[in-house]
Write a structure and sequence with these properties.
heterodimer, A: 81 residues, alpha+beta, Alpha-Beta Plaits, two-stranded antiparallel sheet, two-stranded antiparallel ribbon, 5 strands, 19% helix, 30% strand, globular, B: 595 residues, Aldehyde Ferredoxin Oxidoreductase,  A, domain 1, 4 domains, six-stranded mixed beta sheet, four-stranded antiparallel beta sheet, 28 helices, 18 strands
Chain lengths: 81, 595
């Protein structure tokens, strides 16, 4: 039996610096331009005490935002379906 | 571009507070993309503190949002009859009433606008800007300073309380595949930088351990209050970054105990409040943060307020500025510092004189100007008797704006430099032509090793390249850039095919244009004046510090200082007597139209 991988992204909001590199990477891959508002990952209140990070419908969980997050705010957890 | 747009529209000798003065906000061509550290805002205007046409730079998310909205520049001219703020959201551009935020501080104003309009970049002024205080600044997103020398007051004179930008258009890349490859290599280099973790942990405290300065003053108890450990345990709340930045160094601070417990402060650098702590009169770190917070909210300049506190204390101690003249009893303490901030921001009593800047203060007593550590009406930031004479320190003398902090990023930056060989590797990175090396290594006195006059010219050009593109010039980011690399990034993003020499030349053209504009404002070599105080010993605790060259081998005399100025003008291709760009230089840069 072939098991498919289920990727879960764990968010550590307290580590986020509001740099938006995750949004820039996501939009460049899926929209061919740097457009944070069109990214599948959204950050609200990026510079407030605790930013709010969420994923929009359509996110494929490709994990590129995690790969490029330089502050450990996003973490990849692989499970099995 | 900012310089050219300004030069094409500005009428020389216009008063800074005239409705005809312009403010041009600009972004660079790399802003809005993922290029590391590409989020700078540049504002050019004629500044009231000095009367000079000058640039100011800031960061955070204003330029990023402006670019995402599809704009490169904003040209502000005229004057609104009533207070307004400018709201730019993609193609929607509107001046809205600012009645409810006029009179509010910068934090209140920014919070109000962000709550009303949502995620955005905000430049705002405080009460000091509204009152036309000539040292007032603006803050971007409550954090990044923009406009030392009175940008806040210029906005205030136009009844412009704030500018808010929001953008959803996105930035396409001409050569996305090639760009992605280059970005991946660059970000991996940055990720692997061995000191990256400590930069992010300590922020700007890593660049200048403030405790070292206090220890030199013999104040070990105070030095312990701003150690790395104390910063992490008692001050740091959250690290924040400008858009696209992999080396986050901005701070949200929180005071966790004592009288000011619960205070939250945003700052572009932890060094800002801690440098205030160095003056005698503030006893605890939380007093420094509290006073800094008040300064930021009013939109004043913490460096200028600290320098004023120090200057008035000294003049008061020797009875050159009496309590009667001040209108209150002067003491070197926290309460008096706070009072100084209040009366300056509100132009109350003696504060009305202080609000008109160092030049106005110098008129009060003919001996004052000898004692002031200022250039062209701005207080010096980098003290060469402590740091020695690198390009940052020298550049304060020749910068058209006056003593200014940002324009001389180079291998002689605090803690950088090192051996002459190490310097050469930086020279190559900065695109300094090898033909200039022998001149740079030929200082007025042999022991000096490096000629900071000649090197400053190239440091200014390199800084201008980074700024023009919208890139961060702070040392921890600057070190990853080279002229080759930034030219490649520029070409891949825009689709142009610029040679790196053209980029360097455009930076030189921009600096010369700035110089030409300031010659028309009446500035010349006479204004590029080393403060008299630098030639006197500086007493720090039991240490007596003298004005020395970068390597600490030669005492800088007035004659050597003049030789360094000669060399700077020579390297720039300017006339040594008046500091005018020569006809051949103007022709080579195609600036005849502006001469």
């Amino acid at each position: 039996m072939v098991k498919s991988k289920l990727i879960e992204i764990i968010i550590h909001e307290e580590r986020c610096t509001g740099c938006r590199i995750c949004q820039l990477i996501c939009s460049s891959i899926y929209k061919n331009k740097y457009s944070p508002t069109e990214a599948f990952i959204q950050i609200v209140d990026a510079y407030e005490l605790i930013p709010k990070i969420s994923f929009l419908d359509g996110c494929t969980h490709c994990g590129q935002c995690v790969n490029y997050c330089l502050y450990g705010a996003l973490e990849l957890k692989e499970g099995e379906e | 571009m900012n310089c050219k747009l300004f030069a094409d529209r500005f009428k020389p000798l216009t008063d800074p507070f005239s409705s005809k003065n312009l403010i041009i906000f600009g972004t660079g061509p790399l802003v809005g993309t993922i290029v590391p550290g590409s989020s700078r805002t540049v504002a050019i205007s004629k500044f009231p503190a000095t009367g000079a046409v000058a640039n100011s730079c800031g960061s955070m998310s204003f330029a990023f949002n402006l670019k995402q909205a599809g704009f490169d520049h904003i040209i502000i001219t005229g004057k609104s009859e009533k207070p307004v703020y400018l709201h730019i959201s993609d193609d929607h551009v509107e001046l809205s009433k600012a009645k409810v935020i006029w009179g509010k501080d910068i934090v209140e104003t920014t919070n109000f606008l962000k709550k009303k309009h949502g995620s955005s970049g905000v430049i705002a002024i405080g009460q000091a800007g509204e009152k036309l205080v000539k040292s007032s600044m603006t803050l971007i997103d409550k954090t990044s300073t923009l406009g030392r020398g009175g940008l806040g007051a210029i906005m205030g004179s136009k009844n412009l309380k704030a500018i808010l930008t929001q953008g959803t258009k996105g930035i396409p890349i001409a050569e996305l595949k090639k760009f992605n490859k280059l970005y991946k290599n660059l970000i991996e280099r940055i990720r692997k930088y061995p000191h990256r973790d400590s930069w992010i942990e300590l922020g700007m405290l890593r660049s200048l351990p403030v405790g070292m300065l206090l220890t030199a003053k013999g104040q070990k108890k105070k030095a312990r209050q701003c150690s790395d450990r104390m910063y992490l345990k008692k001050m740091k709340k959250r690290r924040i970054a400008c858009p696209s930045c992999p080396m986050a160094d901005k701070d949200i601070l929180e005071i966790r105990e004592g009288e000011y417990s619960g205070l939250i402060n945003y700052t572009s650098s932890i060094i800002n409040p801690l440098m205030m702590f160095i003056v005698d009169g503030l006893d605890t770190y939380d007093q420094a943060i509290k006073a800094f917070d008040l300064i930021s909210r009013y939109g004043l300049d913490s460096l200028t307020m600290t320098a004023l506190f120090e200057f008035i204390s000294k003049m008061n101690e020797i009875d050159l500025l009496t309590n009667e003249e001040l209108g209150f009893e002067w003491k070197r303490d926290y309460k008096t510092f706070n009072h100084l901030i209040e009366i300056t921001a509100k132009r109350e009593g003696f504060g009305d004189i202080l609000a008109d800047g160092w030049k106005k203060l110098a008129e009060q007593n003919k001996t004052f100007s000898n004692e002031m550590l200022t250039v062209k009406g701005l207080d010096v930031i980098f003290e060469p008797r402590f740091l020695r004479l690198g390009t940052m320190e020298f550049e304060q003398v020749v910068n058209p704006k006056g003593a200014h902090v940002a324009s001389g990023g180079s291998p002689t930056y605090v803690g950088a430099g090192g051996t002459l060989d190490k310097m050469k590797s930086h020279f190559n990175r900065m695109g300094i032509p090898e033909t200039a090396f022998s001149r740079i290594f030929d200082p007025p006195k042999k022991g000096m090793g490096v000629n900071v006059g000649r090197l400053t010219r190239y440091s200014e050009d390199w800084y201008t390249v980074l700024t023009s593109l919208g890139l961060c010039a702070r040392a921890q980011m600057n070190r990853f850039f080279s002229l080759d690399l930034v030219t490649d990034l520029y070409n891949l993003i825009t689709g142009f095919n610029l040679h790196q020499e053209e980029l360097r030349l455009s930076a030189e053209r921009s600096w010369n244009l700035l110089k030409l504009m300031n010659l028309k404002e009446g500035f010349s070599r006479k204004d590029d004046k080393f403060p008299n105080g630098w030639f006197k010993p500086l007493k720090m605790g039991e240490n007596v510090l003298k004005f020395q060259d970068f390597y600490g081998e030669v005492i800088i005399t007035q004659d050597i200082a003049n030789e360094l100025l000669d060399d700077y003008y020579d390297e720039r291709g300017w006339d040594k007597q008046n500091s005018y760009p020569t006809i051949s230089k103007i022709k080579a840069l195609a600036l005849e139209k502006y001469f």
